[in-house]
C-alpha cells in the first residue's frame, strides 16, 4: 500500500468523520504546522453545514512566520484515502505539501484564498 502523510487540525481528527470518509479509525500522532495560523472560515454550502453541524470551520492561513503554529495530528493514509479526503473538503480548502515541525512531509488543507493571493509557498495539488 502506498502511504501518504495527512496533517489535520480540524474535523478529519474526529473519529466519526474518519469512519464516514475512510471506513476506519486513523492512527496518528500530534504535530504542528509552522508558518501558519488558524482562523475560521464560514461554510457557504448548506449541505455541508447540515452534514457537519457547524457554519464555521477551522482553516490554516499562511503567515510565513516560523513562530506561528497550527497544532493538529499527522496521519498515515493510503493514496485512495487521500482522494476521499479531497472530496470531503470544500472549495475554501486546497491541499498542499508542507514540512511539519517534526520534519515529516505531509499534505494539509489550507486557505485557498491565501494561495490565490500569492502569499502561500507550498506545492499544491
Describe this structure in words.
- It is a single chain.
- This protein is an alpha+beta fold.
- Helix content is 24%, strand content 42%.
- It has a six-stranded mixed beta sheet with strand order 2-5-1-7-6-8. A two-stranded antiparallel sheet has the order 3-4.
- The longest helix is centred in the last third of the chain and has 10 residues, at 79-88.
- It is globular, with a radius of gyration of 14 Å.
- Mean pLDDT is 84; it is low at 118-125.
Question: What topology does this entry show?
Answer:
Layout: E1 3-8, H1 15-22, E2 28-34, E3 36-42, H2 46-52, E4 56-62, E5 69-78, H3 79-88, E6 93-99, E7 105-111, H4 112-116, E8 123-124
Parallel strand pairs: 1-7
Antiparallel strand pairs: 1-5, 2-5, 3-4, 6-7, 6-8
> Low-confidence runs (pLDDT<50, min 5 residues)?
118-125
Which sequence of SSEs, written as H and E, runs from N to C? Answer: EHEEHEEHEEHE
Q: So, CATH architecture?
A: Roll
CATH superfamily: Gamma-glutamyl cyclotransferase-like
Count of distinct strands? 8
CATH topology (fold) name: Hypothetical upf0131 protein ytfp
Strands ordered across the widest β-sheet: 2-5-1-7-6-8
As a percent range, the share of strand residues is: 35-45%
The main sheet comes to: 6 strands, mixed
The CATH class assignment is: Alpha Beta
Distinct helical segment count:
4
Give me some keywords for this one.
125 residues; alpha+beta; Hypothetical upf0131 protein ytfp; two-stranded antiparallel ribbon; 4 helices; 8 strands
Amino acid at each position: 500500500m502506498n502511504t501518504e502523510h495527512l496533517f489535520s487540525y480540524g474535523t478529519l481528527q474526529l473519529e466519526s468523520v474518519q469512519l464516514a470518509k475512510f471506513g476506519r479509525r486513523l492512527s496518528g500522532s500530534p504535530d504542528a504546522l509552522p508558518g501558519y495560523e488558524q482562523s475560521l472560515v464560514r461554510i457557504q454550502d448548506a449541505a455541508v453545514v447540515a452534514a457537519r453541524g457547524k457554519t464555521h470551520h477551522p482553516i490554516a492561513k499562511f503567515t510565513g512566520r516560523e513562530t506561528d503554529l497550527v497544532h493538529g495530528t499527522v496521519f498515515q493514509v493510503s493514496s485512495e484515502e487521500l482522494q476521499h479526503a479531497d472530496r470531503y473538503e470544500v472549495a475554501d480548502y486546497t491541499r498542499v505539501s508542507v514540512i511539519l515541525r517534526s520534519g515529516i512531509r505531509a499534505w494539509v488543507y489550507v486557505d485557498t484564498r491565501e494561495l490565490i493571493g500569492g502569499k502561500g509557498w507550498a506545492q499544491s495539488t
